[in-house]
């Protein structure tokens, strides 16, 4: 068993508050609308989005996965930060016990932000995970963020 830690960041042309509201606070409504070919629905199984809530993302038949469950561990609306843990679902690939994420949106320039994501992958005992598998997950996450950024740029009044 071991933990693999990965950090990544990227710049957006959208303010931190709008990215946070759209991607974190309202993802259960917005993401299935924008990514309808891969995300069927997102629903809260427990709680209402605050720390301790459990949220399930259900994927379409076009996706390689069927569902994942996330537990929200910490939520700081003032500093645009969330910590959550993927606790169940086939995205764990029978190789991982969990994946934890810390996502921060920090101001950058006049009207943009830097999104910083730190992920920790807890592997099951005697299991190794390939770097390509981690990269694929990172690419999917970045793709989701880019879709939301494009939506917010096209709709400047959304999430203000």
Could you name the key traits of this structure?
160 residues; alpha+beta; Alpha-D-Glucose-1,6-Bisphosphate, Chain A, domain 4; seven-stranded antiparallel sheet; 3 helices; 7 strands; globular
In short:
The protein is of the alpha+beta class. The chain has helices at residues 16-25, 27-34, 131-154; strands at residues 3-12, 39-46, 54-59, 67-76, 81-89, 96-108, 112-123. It has one domain (2-154): START domain (Alpha-D-Glucose-1,6-Bisphosphate, Chain A, domain 4), CATH 3.30.530.
Helix run count: 3
In CATH's first tier, which class applies?
Alpha Beta
Intertermini distance: 44 Å
- The averaged pLDDT comes out at 93
- Shape, please? globular
Number of E strands: 7
| Uncertain runs | none
Beta-strand content bin = 35-45%
CATH architecture: 2-Layer Sandwich
**Quaternary state of the chains:** single chain
Please name the fourth-level CATH homologous superfamily.
START domain
């Amino acid at each position: 068993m071991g933990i693999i830690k990965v950090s990544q960041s990227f710049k957006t042309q959208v303010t931190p508050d709008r990215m946070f509201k759209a991607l974190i606070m309202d993802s259960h409504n917005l993401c299935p609308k924008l990514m309808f070919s891969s995300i069927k629905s997102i629903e809260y199984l427990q709680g209402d989005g605050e720390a301790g809530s459990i949220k399930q993302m259900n994927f379409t038949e076009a996706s390689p996965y069927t569902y994942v469950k996330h537990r929200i561990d910490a939520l700081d609306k003032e500093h645009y930060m969330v910590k959550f843990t993927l606790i169940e679902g086939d995205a764990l690939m029978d190789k991982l016990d969990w994946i934890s994420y810390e996502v921060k949106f920090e101001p950058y320039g006049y009207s943009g932000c830097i999104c910083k994501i730190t992920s920790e992958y807890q592997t099951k005992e005697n299991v190794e995970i390939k770097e390509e598998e981690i990269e694929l997950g990172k690419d999917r996450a970045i793709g989701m963020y880019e879709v939301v950024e494009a939506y917010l740029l096209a709709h400047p009044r959304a999430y203000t």
